[in-house]
Specification:
about 425 residues; alpha/beta; Aspartate Aminotransferase, domain 1; Aspartate Aminotransferase, domain 2; 2 domains; 7-stranded mixed β-sheet; 14 helices; 13 strands; about 15% strand; binds pyridoxal-5'-phosphate
Length: about 425
């Protein structure tokens, strides 16, 4: 067991951190003493990048100066605005630009993708998901089953951990996929489970799903901007994610979508259509007969949401300037290991406090979920009083997500210090 690192050593780690200057680019909410809080809720709502204000003012200025003409003559013409996000989005998730598009909101996109990638037949109609998935995903899958006249309890199969364990084993996921075999239509799992913080082996799950002839998709709400994703190489069929968590793109922000290149020229795939997914060369001829654009862009419905996209573009630029996800992930692993060492150093019995997130860095992102068996809510309130903004999930889990762009090692050391005081 490692000794708790002191605040001084946290300062040393911060001094040696090449990403430390990025913290200055964010508005850090003040704590009760008006000093900057230690903000660990980037998994819920990422902080406001200072660059966003200028990005929004640019859109407002274009609108004021040009009105409708800003679609063509703006500083970044609205007509093509979504296209300006494709390269950075592709880098973010390990995709080709044709495989990604930014549009709508997450749950909406999940439905749009399921319309195409959940095509149940009389015998192949099961959806495999992780038990305890984020509620919106559960409701989305229930309603997708009903959309096809199926009973959710019959159509949806949930993966649950072994007795006495908190997270899933890859081998058990693979075994379940094999067991379902040709009854399995679609696998839809979170890239990182929001509650436990477990990151799934997306390459292995995709391979297992494809081996039985199923489509495999991931909800990357807690993975995008958190993990170093390689969606194309992992051969994932489809994915979507929100941008307001680890991607700092604001409440209700826009969402990203991935559809593998092999579906890029499949106009025959059933989908819900709208004019923004239509072949742009004839979009304004206003004619009947939907012809989808190639790639993920062919799933677009409505004209681009310029304000959320302007925020998102500023955020993606920050990720690129920091060196991309490989660089961010390296610091992220250190921050989380540091947080973990602070908790281990308390040497509390598992009957009192447990980290339910896997210890293996390959099986988690930045978040640690702490199951507090006694005085959990009291601990959460104590942390809040110290200016440590964590997240409480009923019945007794505290989630802490140190993020590499704006969290410092000193933030993490503050948690360690607060925990030592609380459990003294
Ligand atoms: C945050 C989150 C959502 C939220 O969905 P919205 O459509 O953005 O409101 C959905 N699913 C998962 C897995 C999430 O983590």
């Amino acid at each position: 067991m490692t000794a708790p690192l002191t605040l001084a050593s946290a300062a040393e780690l911060d001094a040696a951190d090449p990403l430390a200057p990025f913290r200055e680019e964010f508005h850090i909410p003040p704590g009760p003493d008006w000093k900057p809080s230690a903000y660990f809720c980037g998994n819920s709502l990422g902080l406001l990048p200072k660059a966003v204000q200028g990005a929004l003012e640019q859109v407002l200025a274009d609108w004021a100066r040009l009105g409708v003409e800003a679609h063509f003559d703006g500083s970044s013409p609205w007509m093509h605005y979504h296209e300006t996000l494709a390269d950075a989005t592709a880098r973010l998730v390990g995709a080709k630009p044709i495989e990604v598009v930014v549009m709508n909101n997450l749950t909406v996109n999940l439905h749009l993708l399921m319309v195409s990638f959940y095509r149940p037949t009389a015998t192949r109609y099961k959806i495999l998901m992780e038990g305890g998935a984020f509620p919106s995903d559960q409701y989305a899958m229930e309603s997708q089953a009903r959309l096809h006249g199926l009973a959710p309890d019959d159509a949806i199969v949930e993966l649950v951990p072994r007795p006495g364990e908190h997270t899933l084993r890859t081998e058990d996921i693979e075994a379940k996929i094999q067991e379902l075999g040709d009854s399995l239509a679609t696998v839809l799992i979170g890239g990182v489970n929001y509650y436990t913080g477990q990151a799934f082996d997306m390459a292995a799950i995709t391979k297992a799903g494809h081996a039985v002839g199923a489509y495999v998709g991931f909800d990357l709400a807690h993975a995008a901007g958190n993990l170093h994703l390689q969606l194309h190489d992992w051969d994932v069929d489809f994915a979507c994610w929100c941008t307001y968590k680890y991607l700092n793109s604001g409440p209700g922000g826009t969402s990203g979508v991935f559809v593998h290149e092999r579906f890029a020229n499949r106009p025959d795939l059933v989908r819900l259509a709208g004019w923004w997914g239509h072949d742009p060369s004839v979009r304004f001829q206003m004619k009947k007969g939907f012809r989808p654009m190639p790639g993920a862009a062919g799933w677009q419905l409505s004209n681009a949401q310029i304000f959320p996209m302007a925020i998102h573009r500023a955020s993606l630029e920050t990720v690129d300037r920091a060196g991309g996800m490989a660089v961010l992930r390296r610091k992220s692993e250190q921050l989380t290991a540091y947080l973990e060492s602070q908790i281990w150093a308390l040497e509390l019995p598992a009957s009192q406090l447990e980290i339910i997130t896997p210890t293996d860095p390959a099986q988690r992102g930045c978040q640690l979920s702490i199951l507090v068996h006694q005085r959990g809510r009291e601990l959460f309130d104590f942390l809040a009083a110290q200016g440590i903004i964590a997240d409480w999930r009923e019945p007794n889990v505290i989630r802490l997500a140190p993020v590499p762009l704006y969290n410092s090692f000193e933030d993490v050391a503050r948690v360690g210090e607060a925990l030592r005081q609380f459990f003294r």
